[in-house]
Amino acid sequence: MSETLNRLQQAHINQLLDTYRTLMQQHGLDAIALYSGHAAPHYGDDQFPEFQAAGHFLHWVPLLEAQHSWLIITPVDRPRLMLHAPTDFWHLSPELPDEPWVSEFDIELVSEAAAPSLSGKVALIGNVEALQGSPVAPPHGEANPPTLVSALDELRMHKSTYEITCLREANRLAKAGHEAAQAAFAGASAELDIQLAYLGASRQRESHVPYDNIVGLNQHAGVLHYQHYDLHSPGKRYSLLVDAGRRFRGYCADITRTWAGPDAPATFGDLIDAMHALKDRLIADIAPGVDYLGLHQTMHRQLGEILVSHDLYRGTAEACVESGVTRAFCPHGLGHSLGIQVHDVAGLQTPSGEPAPAPETHPALRLTRTLTPGMVVTIEPGLYFIPMLLSPLRDTDAPINWALVDQLMPCGGIRIEDNIAVTEQGFDNLTP
Length: 432
Ligand code: GLY
Ligand code: MN
Ligand code: MN
Description:
With 432 residues, the chain is of the alpha+beta class. 33% of the residues lie in helices and 16% in strands. The strands form four sheets. It has a six-stranded mixed β-sheet with strand order 4-3-2-1-5-6. Helix 1 packs across helix 4, helix 4 packs across helix 5 and helix 6 runs antiparallel to helix 7. The site of one manganese (II) ion has 6 residues, from loops.
């Protein structure tokens, strides 16, 4: 695989170079300088939060931890990488990997953080504002011109074959973690132990995950971005929701699975099966020309049908959607673009960079695009029992079967999430 991957990566870099040069011509630029960024210590402390290089830098250079580094693209020169490699006996200095992509760049290892000297009309991309007041002044150039930034974001919306290969590999590695999490749940582990089992099986340290793993037992499965890991196993085991990923060369997997525990009512297991089937039907609809917002609305219609067929809503599926009840059971969007960032850029703009915000009725939707080949998106329908959202409905005449809702409340909720590439013919599910 690695030889193919290397060839694909070289093609990816060459394609990027061509496109950047076209953009430079359109924007009348002599150079684009991409800044990797740098971490700042916690206030009054000598410790730093976890660092991750900026997305546009990573689009070219798969060095997730490169700080104080620059990549300079010009219309004529080879891409020039100034990689900060301090000589320091406290840390291991960054080293270039023995991978063919390095030969695509002129690379300078810089021991003292420094800004490149640039002339002409230059665009600086990245968190260059953070350099103000630091020992390294920002170089000459305009920081983050909005039209150029949205064009660079747009470039990241469509993935090259190299990027899709990386996303598939990230999924393969994450899958091993999910299997280990499921086994740990069967063994009555606490959330922390499930998390550790996940990390071990997916071969990653916690600071390298693409987003904080969500490992929720019981009611915690109904907290959308649940952020703790309980140290103790709860007495009863109703459910486990694991939303956890893996990076591969910077590219993210974002997979969710939900399992019923031995103490869950039978309906909960049936609902999990129904949500898997819903996820698969939505994926089967993916093809070029499909409107993602329309797919999100299809999710709500079919969620309404699931609520009716499982006796949670004693009315029609149409009324369930129209009255906003499905939104109380699923307050998030169908999914988002996926790439170097888990919620990748350009989801809420048109191909020409005009804003395309989520509609007021679905404010949490992160992707409003018409699907075209090369996009990679998540499909993640959910069904939750969230007291904060359901309580206000108790005072209305909405025909909700509250006795069943109360029975299911300890299970928290369900989310099932796969990662899908849009192809010329339809779709390719990257999640094994
Ligand atoms: N893991 C966050 C999300 O699914 O969007
Ligand atoms: Mn997720
Ligand atoms: Mn997601």
